[in-house]
Structure formats: C-alpha cells, structure tokens
Amino acid sequence: MSKIIVLGCGMVGSAMAKDLSKNHEVACADINVNNLKKLDGYSVEQIQIDFSKSELVSDIVDNYDFVLSAVPGFMGFNTLKTIIEAGKNVVDISFFPEDCFMLDELAKSKGVTAIVDFGVAPGIPNMLVGFHDRKMNVKDYKCYVGGLPKERNLPFQYKAPFSPIDVIEEYTRPARFVINNEIIVKEALTDSEFLNFDGIGTLEAFNTDGLRSLLFTNSIPNKIEKTLRYPGHIDLIKMLKNLGLFSDEYIKIGECSIKAIDFISQFLIDKWKLQDREIEFTVMRIIFEGTENHQNVKYTYNLIDYYDPETNISSMARTTGYSGTAAINLLVNNIYSNIGINPPEFVGSNDVAVDFVFNYLKERGVIYQVEKQLS
C-alpha cells in the first residue's frame, strides 16, 4: 500500500483524497480546517499547513511516496517546484499559469516523474491528442467543454464551483489557437457556434484560451478549444465586459473606491454559487479529423457526467479529480515513469496508460463515448 499526500482539500482535492483512501494510505493537507472536516469519517489523515511556506511543504511531502497537488493556481508553480526539489513523483492539477517546462530540467536532475494538467480539461483531451497523433495523421482537433447547472435560472443560466474572478479571467484572457500551423490570437467570447447534446439540448460554444501545452507539443496543423454555456449567457457577459465591469479601473461609490472587477466579482459570488446538493453536469465533445490507413476518418468523444447524490460529489470534482487519481495510480503501478515534466499528451503516447485511465474513470461512472466515422 502506497503512502500518498493530497495537497489541497477544496472541492476537487477532497474528492481525490476520498477516492484514493479506498486503496492507499492517504493524507490531505490544507490551510483551512473547515475544508479538512469534509474528510471526517474517511480514512484520511488531516494536516493543516500553509502552502506558501515551502519549507513546510518540503518537510511534509518527505513522509510520502507520491504527491497529488491540487493547490490554488496562483501558488501551483512554486508548490510543484518544492515537491520536485524534494525528489517526489507527483501529479499536479493546479493549472498554474506559468510554463510547466521551466521545471523540466529540475525534474530530470532529481529523477522525478511529474504529470501536470491532468484533470478533465486540460487533461483527458490532451491525453487523447497524444494517443491519436501516433495512430493517425490528425489534421483538425477541436474540444468543446463546459460545466453547467441542470436548472437554468435567468439571467446568467450559470453556476460556478469556484471563484467568479477565475471565470472572468477565462472570459477576458485572449484566446490562442492554431490554424494552418500558425498560432492565432483572438478575443475571448468570439466565434460562437451552437452544438446539440443528447439529453441537454443546444449549447453555445465560444473561444477561450484552453489549449495550454497543446499549442507547442505536437504538429497538428489546426487546434481549437471552446467553452460551452447555455445560449444567451455570453451575450450578457459581453454586455458586462463592454460596460467596463471586468476592468481594473476604480469606481467610486459614496466615499469608497473599488476596482470594477472586484465589485462585479463580489456581486456574482452569490449569483453563481452552487447550492448544497444542486445538480450540475460536465459536458465535453472532442473531435479528431484526419487520415488513418489511407482513409479519411473522424473520431468523436462525448462526455456527459452529473453530480452524484450518493456521495454528494459534484460532477466537476468527479471528472477532474478522478482523472487526477487515475494519473497518480499510473505512477503507483509503474505504468508510466517518464522522467521530467509530462503534460497529458505525453501520457497519451503509452497505450497501456490510456487504457488504464479510461477503465479507471469508467469504474467510477465517468464514461467517454467514442464514435468512429469513415469517409
């Protein structure tokens, strides 16, 4: 039985700790005691720690065989660096903004296998890029993904399991994608299109900056990722953006001044907060088009996953967290051991690892349906 520590006990971190505790000796660390209380009744050691103090992180991870990092993104890079310096094999789902390959040389010098960005998206689509890029000549890759409440309440028709400011950042950061082997940059929220999903209906997709390492780690000539929302949501978001409410400019209210983005973020906290046991779902469509065995071929993967009322674990935590725990089990079982920094597309080069991940997710009810079309 391996000793694993999960850093971060938020919505996803707590779900991962619970999942791993079925088969491993598990601890979970967080600065927030209330977060740790989510693990009461589970066979998980609870550790209170301030992740900003790297010496404490280093001391704690030294007691474990493997580390699964689910800390907030703004401290993800430094936390991962500390884990690697401690010589621990690690899976990271903090989705930090820095370039993960800045730590590649360090990881190789320490003999560490570090799998990064292994959630639902980024994560599974990236792994499939690595898989299909070896099996066929991929000409076009598209990924559409979103997390939504089942109940559509106007005006936003949206709920977020994380801070509104993180969602706003996704709505404002320029979107990068690849067309004819060139990186193209467009405004977020542009190029909207409508897609239909069985059991859900029509959703609207729009540009966001989600490709991350896929921009550079392969030679697929056309790559796009878009976010999915209920129709009408982005028109409202565009209006708020055009009013300047996503800017860093100060607005004066009486004797007080506050940044516009801080004001709207605070306003949206209650509007976008998922209620206890509220049903939400994760929806994703991944498309690969190209040639295989001298034939035109199209692979389409569809995922629709719902909140689990039995475990009271959200779909976003299930789809993201169980991808992360699948990845840590790749390390535990020595299925994947490439030294250095490994985004999911590197893992996709290993057929055994890909099969393991999908079987692991299927056992937990996270099921990707795949369709192959020849023309």
Give the SSE layout.
Blueprint: E1 3-7, H1 11-20, E2 25-30, H2 33-36, E3 44-48, H3 54-61, E4 66-69, H4 76-85, E5 89-92, H5 104-110, E6 113-116, H6 124-135, E7 137-149, H7 164-172, E8 175-179, E9 182-186, E10 193-197, E11 201-207, E12 222-229, H8 233-242, E13 250-253, E14 256-259, H9 260-272, E15 280-292, E16 295-306, H10 315-332, E17 340-342, H11 344-347, H12 351-363, E18 368-374
Parallel strand pairs: 1-2, 1-4, 2-3, 4-5, 5-6, 6-17, 7-12
Antiparallel strand pairs: 7-15, 8-9, 10-11, 11-12, 13-14, 15-16, 16-18
Detailed description of the structure:
The protein is of the alpha/beta class and 375 residues long. It contains twelve helices and 18 strands. The strands form four sheets. Strands 3-2-1-4-5-6-17 form a seven-stranded parallel beta sheet, with helices on both faces. A seven-stranded mixed beta sheet has the order 10-11-12-7-15-16-18, with helices on one face. A two-stranded antiparallel sheet has the order 8-9. Strand 4, helix 4 and strand 5 form a beta-alpha-beta unit. The radius of gyration is 21 Å and the shape is globular. The model has no long low-confidence stretch (mean pLDDT 95).
